Amino acid sequence: MTSAIVDLRGNGGGLVDQAVKVAERFLPKGTLIVSQHGRTSADDLEWVSSNTAAETMPLVLLVDENTASASEIVAGAFQDRDRAIIVGERTFGKGLVQNVIDLPFKTGLTLTAARYYTPSGRSIQRDYEQISRYQYFSHLTPSADIGLPYYEAKTLTDRRVYGGNGISPDVSSEPVLMNAQQLALLDPIFAYANDLINGRVPGFESYAQYRTRQSSNTLDLSAMDLSDELISKLGIYKTADGAAISPKTITREMDFIRSRQQRPANKGGDKGSSRRRRTRACSRKSDTLRPQIKKALSPKRKSLDPTSNELEAQLTGDLNTPCAIRNRIIDTSKDRRCDNRCRIIK
Fold first, then answer.
1. Is pLDDT above 60 for 216?
2. What pLDDT is stored for residue 7 in this prediction?
3. SS3 36
4. Angle at Cα 9 formed by Cα 8 and Cα 14, nearest 5°?
5. Residue 135 in contact with residue 141, Cβ under 8 Å?
6. What's the rounded Cα separation, in Å, for the pair 241 and 158?
7. How far, in whole angstroms, is CA 301 from its chain's centroid?
8. pLDDT averaged over every residue in the chain
9. 5 three-class SS
10. Which of 139, 193, 212, 341 is most deeply packed, by most CB within 10 A?
11. pLDDT at 290
């Protein structure tokens, strides 16, 4: 492998230790990954890479508004060290450390005790003090709209980056949104895929093998050969409001239908209604997301300029050629010891 794309879109995070392990796979020993700052010095911690043989391949990181928490730690570490191009949308902005205090009657109180900061000192957490809960989770009111300043910092190559509102991508790329016709096709596509893998589509009973070939409850249909003739069978289904699906609509939305058909499917046959509800409740973003993938594969390249505000200007040559600037690290051994991955800040 000579280069890689790490897709963190829709990744809501997880354990901090796992985020650190992912980041240090690509960051050499002694590189600060994330720090934690709280009200007291006992809450102040740093996580530092201990990898003596880090990968040096070029990286592109895909993020969106649902990239949160531990995933943002990885994105922030890579961005501050100029280790990867961040492509996509601004991340969610969840960087709080919470402690659970046990209370009577088997209850507990979750108390915010600290915040996570990127290596340059940026807070990952988005402001939530002057907006409603609905606005916060709907991304309706970013910090700039309520008059709160962004925290400005510099990356390893002296690029300006800002904190206090998630991680801003280096290359913005909005996903494709579903139109009204595509939204109306979601239920018929789901019903058709469910019938197809259960052998209930006349003339295509052999596709039931995809159901029996895999042992997990979720089927990977990405390898399924979906011919135009097979997709045209969608016309026997109707939309949720009872409207027929015309051959013209199928022809026009052929690529969209094919991509939706190849999504993971529930193996339980008729038990997939909960997944259908989740599909209907999802955002209007198309799962193809081709513009983001294309930008990740073909970033613009200009001459090297350490003072540029765009990471695109930091890269020269082909993605298969590592960029020396991105592989530099700050030698912290002069003022702080970097022997341990997690340490108390001196």
1. no
2. 93
3. strand
4. 55
5. yes
6. 56
7. 24
8. 76
9. strand
10. 193
11. 60
Distance, in Å, from the CA atom of 37 to the CA atom of 35, rounded to the nearest integer, reads 7
When pLDDT is averaged across residues 237-250 and rounded to a whole number, the result is: 91
Distances from the Cα of 239 to the Cαs of 55, 236, 244, in angstroms?
Answer: 49, 10, 7
Q: How confident is the model at residue 95, as a pLDDT? A: 94
Q: Is 335 a catalytic residue?
A: no
- The one-letter code for the residue type at 239 is T
In degrees rounded to 5, what are phi and psi of residue 115? -135, 155
Q: How far apart are CA 123 and CA 162, in angstroms?
A: 9
More confident position, 295 or 300: 295
Specify whether the CB–CB gap between 141 and 255 falls below 8 A.
Answer: no
Q: What is the DSSP string of 64-111?
A: -TT--THHHHHHHHHHHTT-EEEEES------EEEEEEEETTTEEEEE
Q: Which pLDDT value is given to residue 107?
A: 95
Q: Which of 7, 35, 49, 69 is catalytic?
A: 69
Query: Out of 71, 94, 170, 173, which one is annotated catalytic?
Result: 94
Of the two residues 151 and 79, the one the predictor is more confident about is: 79
pLDDT, tens digit, 9 for 90 and up, residues 168-190: 999 988 777 888 889 999 999 98
Catalytic residue list contains 3: no
Place of tokens 């090297």: 304
More confident residue, 107 or 295: 107
Separation of alpha carbons 244 and 242, rounded Å: 7
| Residue 299 clears pLDDT 70, i.e. is over it | no
Catalytic residue among 35, 64, 71, 80: 80
The answer to whether residue 262 scores a pLDDT higher than 60 is yes
- Pick from 302, 312, 322, 314: which is nearest to 58 by CA? 322
Rounded distance, CA 184 to CA 245, Å? 10
Q: Can 69 be counted among the known catalytic residues?
A: yes
Residue 138's Cβ-side half-sphere holds a number of Cα atoms within 13 Å equal to 7
Query: For the whole model, what pTM was predicted?
Result: 0.68
